[in-house]
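Report of the visiting student (M.T.), summer placement. My assignment was to run the structure pipeline on a short list of targets and document each run. The first record concerns RNA methyltransferase.
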Amino acid sequence: MSGRQRAPALRVRTRRELRQFRRGRAHSCWDHLYAAPLWPLHGANLGTLLRTCDAVGACLIVPRFPWVPEALARGDTLRRPACVHWTGDPLGWLERQRARGLRVIGVELAEGAVRLADLPPVRQATVVVLGHEQSGVPPEALDLLDSAVEIPMIGTGASLNVAVAGSLVLYKAAGLL
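After the run finished, the structure tokens were exported:
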């Protein structure tokens, strides 16, 4: 036998084992971490983001666009209801959350933004704001942010889609990465 040692055999956990480490029932509202894609462009991203919210214990805030309910239903593969809140006024909703004392973090390429790797887990109720995939967080919403987080990229693209960017930031903010 060569000098290489064998890695221990990996074993996939059973569904029963996995359930032991997860919450027993769906939540009505965690009231701690919110994903807010308030200016979505593509419906497919909302379903993916909804599953990420469930995975990290976050609530999803969505605008009352006519196509959003169908997009959520199509992308929702969860067996239990997820926590979804609706808003018809994204800027007003953000202002109300700040008034309630929530921290508001935008995922945006902005001067002074924190790199994703340096984002600490949230310690207080926090809203993660996700902008439009082509134009980002609108200028009138930037003043409502307490801070911004930037996802570094070395490729030629300027940004990731909302589902991917939101998932990365939510996992980091929840302290799961």
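DSSP finds six helices and seven strands in the chain. The first strand starts at residue 33 and ends at 37. I thank the supervising group for their guidance throughout the placement.
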